[in-house]
Amino acid sequence: SLVCTQKPPEAEEGAEPVTLREYQPGEVFGELALMYNAPRAATITATTESECYVLDRGTFNKIVKNSAIKRRQKYENFLEKVELLADLKPAEKDKIVDCLKTERFKKGDKVIVQGEEGNQFYLIQEGTASATKKTPEGNEETVWDYKANEYFGELALINSEKRQATITVTSDEFVVATLDSRSFSRLLGPVESILKRNAERYKKFVVKN
């Protein structure tokens, strides 16, 4: 695995760099400098013995550049539709785009399960899902229905607790953009108060259990 760090432009001399995200097998990095012909914006450091495949600029431009630009634009357009992020500055949204990963699910898949450890935040790009919670009697009670441009998974990360509900896909296709817990804490600080306020929608169900 590798870790991506960046020294904020406003940081004092000698300040420690901020960790942006950790990369795992199957992920890519380094495309921004090639896409925009710009200096490297962050430092990538190996945290374990790692092996990477490399593309030179010419090959990247011929084969990968257009798809990389389209992927980034797709994320940027998507974030504009998420009401939660409406007040974030463009630079803040750009950093979120850098850290997003796409995951796909089918109807009936359980994206998260009540009682599990929480380590990701989910933004719904396509599809619908239902949140259910077990009652003291052992029954499953629906507490929320989700649709595109909404989000879930924040409670476990805000409160450092286990998942409070199970999220099951109700549409044929379900596509989400995810943020890991570290990126969530660092990048969504400006909207944490909104997240906490919106979490009140679950309160009546949590109290019953």
Account of the 3D structure:
This protein is an alpha+beta fold and 209 residues long. It has helices spanning 31-36, 57-81, 90-99, 154-159, 181-187, 192-198, 203-208; strands at residues 2-6, 18-23, 43-46, 101-106, 110-112, 120-126, 129-134, 140-146, 151-152, 166-169, 173-180. The longest helix has 25 residues, at 57-81. The model is unreliable at 204-209 (pLDDT under 50).
**Helix and strand composition category:** alpha+beta
Distance between the termini: 40 Å
Helicity level:
25-40%
**Order of strands in the sheet with most strands:** 4-11-6-9
Strand content: 25-35%
Shape: globular
The largest pleated sheet is described as:
4 strands, antiparallel
Structural descriptors:
7 helices, globular, 4-stranded antiparallel β-sheet, alpha+beta, 209 residues, disordered C terminus
Produce a short descriptive summary.
The chain has 209 residues and is of the alpha+beta class. It has helices spanning 31-36, 57-81, 90-99, 154-159, 181-187, 192-198, 203-208, and strands spanning 2-6, 18-23, 43-46, 101-106, 110-112, 120-126, 129-134, 140-146, 151-152, 166-169, 173-180. The protein is globular and about 60 Å long.
Chain-wise SSE layout:
Elements: E1 2-6, E2 18-23, H1 31-36, E3 43-46, H2 57-81, H3 90-99, E4 101-106, E5 110-112, E6 120-126, E7 129-134, E8 140-146, E9 151-152, H4 154-159, E10 166-169, E11 173-180, H5 181-187, H6 192-198, H7 203-208
Antiparallel strand pairs: 1-2, 1-3, 4-11, 5-10, 6-9, 6-11, 7-8, 7-10
Helix pairs in contact: 2-3
